[in-house]
Amino acid sequence: MSMKKRLLALTAMLATALVACSPGGEGSGSNASGNNASNCTNTIPKKDLPVVTMWGWYPNMQLVVDNFNKQNAEVQVCWTNVGQGSDEYDKFQTAISAGTGAPDVIMIEMDRIPTFQIQNALVDIRPYGFDAVKADYSEGAWKDVSVGDAVYGVPVDGGPLAMIYRKDIFDEYGITPPKTWAEYEQAAQKVKDAGGPLFGDFAANVSALTMALQIQKGAAPFTYDPAQQSSIGIKLNDQASKDVLDYWARLVQKGLVGTQDQFTPEYISGVINGNYATYISAAWAPGYLTGAGVGKGEDTGKFAVAPLPQWDPDNPVQVNWGGSAFSVTSQAKNPELAAKVAYGLYADDESLTDGWTNQIIFPLNLKALNDPEFVNLKVAFFDGQQANKEVYVPAANAYAGVTYSPFGQYYFDAMTKQVSEIIKGSVTGAQAADRLQEDVVSYAGEQGFTVQ
């Protein structure tokens, strides 16, 4: 069986991704319209124009689509919410396998793009107006939606990483925000020695975060160029990757951080109750935490944010967790019109402003990132701190992007298994990295790849 056919057969089984950005969704997502424009969630106001079908899950998608349709004189959008994360990906995979039933435009997480690109399910949008919008996003944002030199999505939101912390805990134990990971460990030890709470959390179910922290140290997990589609570089047990896993294994062993799965009621309860002094997370976290009930009641005004600790403060590296894009599918009836929709959705001022003011997205469009109102916003969750100006915007601007693999979900699942073993004390971080390398290389070979 060829590499593409194997991936086609196995992708659906692996579609259980954690959706890292903008939790929640609008509608039940039970009715998948594919590229049939006869059944839309929204009302199309200009019925004489051609229609592009789209799947998307942002909570304010209705507003975004209505804004686009109202402002556009060439094309209209028929929007359907078929679900979020694995719900949508399963439906898309079914449509890919059947050769029919996919929308013209689909909202997907950036790390999923290579998985669908290798199946020829997405269209390179460079010929369809890319030069006109290229300057609207950073090079790092474009890299995250590219495979080789080809561009398979329009970036919308991202997740530059930072360190959220409890001001009350830091004040009680005389801690200042650590600027390095060495200082982070020292602060954690100080709080523990004084009888304080856990300093953070090292969870098995956030593999994308673990990967980002390894990249910050200098790791490059994958190298992949579709020009050599059967070849892939895999380096999951380089020294940087081992160093990061050993670092967190040591903090776990010393009892400085917890090991609770994140995005669970138990973890959120711990955040609310002050069981953790810090939360290493992305720019979408304030919206997620607010929606989960954090920062309300007794813990109102207790949170602040600082830049992500660095390994080498003289050579800082900014990394990202999460982010979504609008991609044109290979089943699009008119790829040029579909690309116009992908470029134009969530790119108007009203939609972008609604997204960040309501903490639905952290925008990647530079019109928003450079907007003084956004940059200088006093974030209520952080007790009025200008978090964008001080932390998130500089991190987003400095982010250089990453190369994802065509089997990213398998890698994330394999990482989860190894981090679970670290947490149990069964293996060291370095041993886990070696086991992860062996596992993923073996899987890649089974899919027909030659591993470099």
Automatic annotation (TrEMBL):
Q: Which domain of life is it from?
A: Bacteria
Q: Where are the transmembrane segments?
A: none
Keywords of this protein's UniProt record, alphabetized?
Signal
Q: Which PROSITE patterns match?
A: PROKAR_LIPOPROTEIN
Give the SUPFAM superfamilies listed for this entry.
Periplasmic binding protein-like II
Q: Which residues form the signal peptide?
A: 1-20
Spell out the Gene3D superfamilies in the cross-references. Periplasmic binding protein-like II (3.40.190.10)
Q: Return the PANTHER family for the record.
A: ARABINOSE-BINDING PROTEIN-RELATED, BLR3389 PROTEIN
* UniProt-recorded name of the protein: Extracellular solute-binding protein
Q: Which organism is it from?
A: Nonomuraea aridisoli
